[in-house]
């Protein structure tokens, strides 16, 4: 009887075990915990940018973009001394294409009667896309990875933009932008998507 109980106990123990595959280094490949918080510890900033571009950037931008007028109204609610980034969709007329800085080209677009400088790369110096898309510091290993994600997202954004040149001047354009606001004013605008022509 004692043997039967031991055997039954051993079988119960084995039936509760889960067999997992091993990777090339012989380490177990464990399934992701469905209750785990999102995190990017095992991915490079470039991988994060590419894999989350559609789901976290474009879907957020398309679903929550403000009009330029609504963004200006919202900027009045930004706490003094801080900034906030949002996605904005607007159309206007291109009045200038500035390449005086070889690494930081800008389009000037008249939106609602006001000139707006939109940064289009090849280098973007802004946290706007990362912050408007809702990436949070807690999702990352450290401040370095969080900062590197900014650069990776900006590089990815530039790759998605069409080739812009002098031929765009004096023509209509539709723009999806990440706008960084301070209290009552616009601090920074970067292009996420540009389309020539009116909607």
What's the structural blueprint in terms of helices and strands?
Layout: H1 2-15, H2 45-64, H3 68-75, E1 84-98, E2 104-111, E3 114-122, H4 128-132, H5 143-160, E4 172-182, E5 185-196
Antiparallel strand pairs: 1-2, 1-4, 2-3, 4-5
Helix pairs in contact: 2-5
Tell me what you see in this structure.
The protein is an alpha+beta fold and 199 residues long. Helix content is 33%, strand content 28%. It has five helices and five strands. The protein has helices at 2-15, 45-64, 68-75, 128-132, 143-160; strands at residues 84-98, 104-111, 114-122, 172-182, 185-196. The chain has a five-stranded antiparallel sheet with strand order 3-2-1-4-5. A hairpin with a 2-residue loop joins β4 (172-182) and β5. α2 packs across α5. The longest helix is centred in the N-terminal third of the chain and has 20 residues, at 45-64. It is globular, with a radius of gyration of 24 Å. Residues 5-18 and 30-38 have low confidence and may be disordered.
């Amino acid at each position: 009887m004692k043997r039967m109980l031991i055997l039954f106990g051993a079988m119960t123990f084995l039936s509760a075990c889960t067999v997992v595959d091993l990777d090339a280094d012989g380490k177990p490949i464990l399934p992701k915990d469905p209750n785990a918080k999102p995190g990017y510890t095992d991915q490079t900033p470039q991988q994060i940018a590419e894999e989350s571009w559609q789901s976290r950037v474009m879907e957020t931008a398309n679903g929550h973009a403000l009009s330029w007028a609504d963004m200006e109204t919202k900027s009045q609610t930004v706490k003094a001394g801080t900034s906030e980034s949002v996605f904005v969709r607007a159309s206007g007329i291109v009045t200038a294409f500035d390449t005086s800085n070889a690494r930081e080209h800008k389009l000037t677009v008249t939106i609602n009667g006001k000139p707006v400088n939109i940064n289009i790369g090849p280098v973007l110096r802004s946290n706007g896309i990362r912050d408007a898309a809702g990436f949070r510091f807690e999702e990352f290993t450290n401040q370095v990875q969080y900062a590197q994600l900014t650069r990776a997202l900006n590089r990815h954004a530039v790759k998605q933009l069409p080739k812009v040149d002098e031929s765009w001047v004096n023509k209509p354009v539709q723009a999806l932008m990440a706008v960084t606001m301070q209290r009552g004013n616009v601090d920074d605008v970067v292009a996420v998507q540009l389309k020539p022509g009116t909607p």
